[in-house]
Automatic annotation (TrEMBL):
Protein name as it appears in the record: Class I SAM-dependent methyltransferase
An example Gene Ontology biological process: methylation
Transmembrane helix found in the keyword field: no
SUPFAM superfamilies: S-adenosyl-L-methionine-dependent methyltransferases (SSF53335)
EC numbers, comma separated: 2.1.1.-
InterPro entries: SAM-dependent_MTases_sf
Originating organism: Streptomyces vulcanius
Domain of life: Bacteria
Gene3D superfamilies: Vaccinia Virus protein VP39
Alphabetic keyword roster: Methyltransferase, Transferase
Keyword hit for Methyltransferase: yes
Length: 284
């Protein structure tokens, strides 16, 4: 059977030199991934994630959200096909973190859903998450819908599926910074980044034949020790990759530094207020 892969919702890392991919993944793990901790916590609390949870995490990155679920006792499957470097970091993180957790079902990390989708299999998951926020890229809603269509048959009927998105531009400083920088490098008529739309998540649910069943908003401020750390963290998201192809990384780093100036505090730290939205949908 043809393997079913989960596409990462951020741009592929094609323009990043191979030698830099490890550093990019490490920046994601050490700087950027923690910015979404309030989102993970809010969802896990609302859905009472614990020993009875069998979680399928799509686009699990370097595993921070998985580690938090493991500490609640959940059985975990994390899928990350787009970045072997992030997946390797998830293995490192879960090897130490999960051993301290009291999870009963264990942890499985993979770059493909092929094993789960091969042949007929009794649905084995009762929670599916896609925490990587959509709503900045022009085609990310379509991409995520395809991922969910492949993954949700592995879940029990009525399973909650959690989707996450960037908040409205007026409440999401970081997305405005990224659009301002990337937009300068976009060719005429091309729109790699766009403002989040109010119904982005509902549109994904509709395309994947999922029924919306509640939503919420979570404050996730992005705080950095300094401008250099902020630039590295934002570049690790991949959202500036198209601009890097067009103008070069040095130029994008310079423009990010300038765009971050309004968010720099007197002590040199950088603080950007953001609000992210999540949608809980249900499998048929």
């Amino acid at each position: 059977m043809t393997p079913v892969l989960v596409r990462q919702h951020l741009p592929q890392a094609g323009p990043v030199p191979r030698a830099d991919l490890g550093a990019r993944a490490r920046d994601w793990s050490e700087i950027q991934e923690r910015m979404l901790v309030p989102l993970y916590e809010a969802v896990y609390e609302r859905l009472d994630v614990g020993f009875r949870t069998r979680l399928l995490a799509l686009g699990c990155g370097s595993g921070l959200a998985l580690l938090m679920a493991a500490r609640r006792g959940a059985a975990l499957t994390g899928v990350e096909p787009s970045s072997p470097q992030r997946l390797a970091l998830a293995h490192e993180r879960l090897a130490t973190g999960a051993s301290r957790a009291h999870t009963r079902g264990g942890v499985r990390l993979t770059d493909s859903l092929a094993e789960d989708t091969a042949g007929s299999q009794t649905p084995s998951y009762n929670l599916v998450t896609a925490f990587e926020p959509i709503g900045c890229l022009a085609d990310d809603a379509e991409g995520l819908a395809g991922v969910l269509t492949a993954a949700t048959p592995l879940a029990e009927p009525g399973t909650p599926v959690v989707l996450a998105g960037w908040g409205p531009p007026e409440r999401c400083a970081t997305s405005a910074v990224l659009r301002a920088v990337a937009g300068r490098a976009e060719p005429p008529g091309h729109q790699a980044l766009r403002p989040a739309l109010r119904d982005d998540l509902e549109e994904v649910a509709r395309r994947a034949d999922l029924g919306p069943d509640g939503s919420g908003r979570v404050a996730c401020p992005f705080g950095y020790a300094g401008v250099e750390s902020a630039v590295r963290g934002l570049l690790s998201t991949g959202l500036c990759d198209a601009a890097i192809v067009a103008t070069g990384q040095e130029q994008i780093e310079k423009e990010l530094t300038e765009a971050l100036h309004p968010y720099r505090r007197p002590d040199g730290t950088v603080w950007m207020p953001n609000v992210f939205r999540y949608l809980i949908a249900r499998t048929p």
